Amino acid sequence: MYKLDILDKKILYELDINSRQLLTQLAKKLGKNRNTIEYRIERLQEKGIIKKFVTLLDAGKLGLMVWNVYIEFQNLTPKIEKEIIEYLKDNKKVWWVALPSGKWNLIYSIFVKNIKEFYSTVNDFNSKFGHYILNQSLAAHVEVEILSRGFFLKKPAIGVTWYKTFESIKIDKTDKNILKELSTNARISSIELAKKLDITPRIVSYRIKELIKKKIITRFRLQLDVSKLGYGFYKVIVHLKNRSPKNDIKLMQYCKQLGNIFHYEKKIGPWMLELEMNVKSYEKINELMKIMKEKFPEYIKSYEIMLITSEPKGELDLTQQL
């Protein structure tokens, strides 16, 4: 486990809010010189803590629906499990595959343009592997609050809303190419990006500003390997009662204050809320959720905790769906 000092924590905190900010800006905020900040970032990359600087695109702004499929298997062998994972990794409509602990053995997420496309994708999977499926649940994303990892500095999270509206904003080939590059390399300079795409840096800067203005780009953030810092990636299914906007706002504000919840996901399906967070142990997350339920007894009915043990796929380039 890598031990962070206070400067490392400040860098991670700031870059998780905006991983594209300039080194000079970051150095000024932190009261250090540019070379020191650059060295620290490179060291965090070398240690494998920072995996990527990523750009989160709003699927709703691109006319894409988002669904999660949760599967409990039966009679599964390691060979078949590998075959299933490879099948999902090869499917361009599947953007995330996770292996959790608990009742559900696999979760996969799909980006589709309509319900018919969703049905076809799930039906094709079930036709091939239905013999091994004991239970299956489907849940659609309604809205997601993407929260910064405030726990690095014991601060509240800073949120931005993803999938707030569903519309299809037309983007041209240049926008697609820019988004494709930014998706897994948010810190690429406008000059370097311009060279790759054979356009001017001025055009690149203008297009990125417009994509942010239209809220197609939601946030530039970090993709981290939190296991190197002693944290686990947990997903919590929350069953709610007495649903109301007032209760939802109160619970979301509470989650922001905790600082370690990075996704507050409103769903439509068998349950209406999921929380994704980084916590150091199962005991700690169980304690956290117990306290949360005690604070919101009129809203939280029950919860299910899952440790995400592996993520065989995590696709960030949504332009391939357009």
Short description:
With 322 residues, this protein is α+β, with helices and mostly antiparallel strands. It is built from ten helices and eleven strands.
Task: List descriptors.
11 strands; alpha+beta; single chain; 10 helices; 322 residues
Kindly describe this structure.
The protein has 322 residues and is an alpha+beta fold. The protein has helices spanning 6-17, 23-30, 34-46, 78-90, 115-129, 173-183, 190-197, 201-213, 245-258, 282-295, and strands at residues 50-57, 65-73, 94-100, 106-112, 133-147, 159-162, 217-224, 232-240, 261-268, 273-279, 300-314. It has an 8-stranded antiparallel beta barrel with strand order 2-4-3-11-8-10-9-5, surrounded by 4 helices. A hairpin with a 5-residue loop joins β3 (94-100) and β4. α2 (23-30) crosses α3 (34-46). The longest helix has 15 residues, at 115-129. The N and C termini lie far apart (41 Å).
Q: What level of helicity do the residues show?
A: 25-40%
Overall number of strands: 11
Compute the separation of the termini in Å: 41 Å
Mean pLDDT rating: 96
The gyration radius over C-alpha positions equals: 20 Å
Major sheet description? 8 strands, antiparallel, barrel
Number of helices: 10
Parts with pLDDT < 50 across at least 5 consecutive residues: none
Order of strands, main sheet, comes to: 2-4-3-11-8-10-9-5
Structural class by sheet pairing and helices? alpha+beta
